[in-house]
Design brief:
- This protein has three domains: about 90 residues, Elongation Factor Tu (Ef-tu), domain 3 (Beta Barrel); about 110 residues, Rossmann fold; about 80 residues, Roll (Ubiquitin-like (UB roll)), CATH 3.10.20.30.
- With about 325 residues, the protein is an alpha/beta fold.
- The radius of gyration is 20 Å and the shape is globular.
Length: about 325
């Protein structure tokens, strides 16, 4: 659908807020805390979490970090000004709040504050117990400090900066020291930050079902990991057709050359758009979307980035 950028505001170093409104008379679809939208810009499709309260029905707000090391989407987005029209998707939520949690621990690293802020506002609006921990390199790179300083959120928020003394930085072991079946943990941010949080939680004995994460990009060890790839085949269950997947070629690309289109969006194993059932064979999981338990089941994979450990992978296409 079409949306108009009604406001563009600087939030912090290299971070801007974009407020989007409907380009026609149709109202924007509602969304829930943790949801994101696809934004199509200059040939790129990127996912951005909605960062305003779900109670606001008239606008979507996204926070975008301009990353010079990105593949170009964020740079193209930052070139847009208020008044421009964008094509966006309806909101989707792969990172929802647990409705039954008696307490929620929210942890954000850098631009990962965007879905976490939305969650905090939802929890505040509904009177539920929560705490928010926000880590950035320095105050100048921390977005939404004004919102976090407002009454309500301020009492629940804890800020940490790498530029501060070591004793003022976050102590994950202390934050996650008391595993509780009725408490859920949500983390979003750079891969290293998420892995540190999940590692600390696992070491403390938190149940895996109570840990929720959303990556904004592939792990570094996943990106550029085509060295050592071997060729394999995917077999399409509906027809028995076998498609060769050469080394250095993704399953999505190999299928496309045969006229078979799989819906994709991020093509980094982040968003889950291309999630496909596996009926036989063992996937070589290279995504950051599936949980460890889901990977271990070996009954689904993301063909945009993952491969196969067996000569043939039978997929539900």
């Amino acid at each position: 659908m079409k949306a108009i950028i009604t406001r563009k505001l600087p939030l912090a170093t290299d971070i801007c807020l974009f407020e989007l409104s409907s380009a026609d008379s149709e109202p924007l679809p509602p969304f829930s805390a943790g949801a994101h939208i696809d934004v199509h810009v200059d040939g790129f499709t990127r996912q951005y979490s909605l960062c305003n309260s779900p109670a606001e029905r008239g606008v979507y707000q996204i926070g975008v970090l301009r990353d010079p090391a990105s593949r170009g989407g964020s740079i193209a987005m930052h070139a847009y000004a208020a008044g421009a029209t964008l094509e966006i998707s309806e909101p989707r939520n792969h990172f929802p709040l647990d409705a039954h949690a008696k307490h929620t621990i929210l942890l954000a690293g850098g631009i990962g504050i965007t879905p976490i802020l939305c969650m905090a506002m939802e929890l505040l609006d509904t009177g539920r117990s929560f705490e928010l921990h926000y880590c950035t390199r320095e105050p100048a790179r921390a977005a939404f400090l004004d919102r976090l300083a407002q009454a309500g959120l301020k009492e629940h928020s804890h800020l940490y900066f790498d530029s501060d003394a070591a004793e003022q930085r976050i102590d994950l072991q202390a934050v996650l020291a008391q595993p509780d079946q009725d408490t859920h943990v949500y983390v979003c941010g750079p891969a290293g930050f998420i892995d540190a949080v999940l590692g600390a939680a696992t070491n403390a004995g938190w149940p895996a079902a109570n840990l929720h994460r959303e990556y904004f990009g592939a792990r570094q060890e996943v990106e550029g990991s085509s060295d050592g790839d071997t060729a394999f085949q995917v077999s399409l269950a509906s027809s028995g057709k076998q498609v060769d997947v050469p080394a250095g070629t993704t399953v999505v690309e190999a299928l496309r050359t045969c006229g078979i289109e799989v819906p994709v969006s991020c093509e980094q194993g982040v968003c889950g758009t291309c999630l496909t059932r596996v009926l036989a064979g063992e996937p070589d999981h290279r995504d950051v979307y599936l949980t460890d338990e889901e990977r271990a089941a070996n009954d689904q994979f993301l063909p945009c980035c993952s491969r196969s450990k067996t000569p043939v992978l039978v997929i539900d296409l």
